[in-house]
Amino acid sequence: MMLEPSIDALQTKVKSKYTLVILSAKRARQIKELNNLMIDHPKSQKNVGRALEEINAGKIVLENNETLAK
């Protein structure tokens, strides 16, 4: 089973795997609470997967240790 997006693709956006985990978990909680998905037609049914898709799409970025939604 292949996960989408791949870790290699995500690491072009966020260099640290630890930061990627924290960022995606934080965004998944926001998606759950606010139901404000930033991408159309996500492949994943779970909020963490959707958060990773948003990061891969460039909708969520990390600047100066702050999560920014574009």
Automatic annotation (TrEMBL):
What does it do?
Promotes RNA polymerase assembly. Latches the N- and C-terminal regions of the beta' subunit thereby facilitating its interaction with the beta and alpha subunits.
Pfam family of the protein (one) = RNA_pol_Rpb6
Q: Reaction catalysed by this chain? A: RNA(n) + a ribonucleoside 5'-triphosphate = RNA(n+1) + diphosphate
Q: List, alphabetically, the PANTHER family matched.
A: DNA-DIRECTED RNA POLYMERASE SUBUNIT OMEGA (PTHR34476)
Query: SMART domains given for it?
Result: RNA_pol_Rpb6
Question: Known InterPro entries for this protein?
Answer: DNA-dir_RNA_pol_omega, Pol_omega/Rpo6/RPB6, RPB6/omega-like_sf
* Protein name (record): DNA-directed RNA polymerase subunit omega
Database matches in Gene3D superfamilies: 3.90.940.10
Supply the alphabetized keyword list: DNA-directed RNA polymerase, Nucleotidyltransferase, Transcription, Transferase
Q: How does it assemble?
A: The RNAP catalytic core consists of 2 alpha, 1 beta, 1 beta' and 1 omega subunit. When a sigma factor is associated with the core the holoenzyme is formed, which can initiate transcription.
Q: Which NCBIfam families match?
A: rpoZ
Q: Which GO terms describe its cellular component?
A: DNA-directed RNA polymerase complex
Where do transmembrane segments lie in this chain? none
Q: What is the lineage of its organism?
A: Bacteria, Bacillati, Bacillota, Bacilli, Bacillales
Which EC numbers does the record give?
2.7.7.6
Q: Which family does it belong to?
A: Belongs to the RNA polymerase subunit omega family.
Q: What class of enzyme is it?
A: transferase
Q: Which GO terms describe its molecular function?
A: DNA-directed RNA polymerase activity
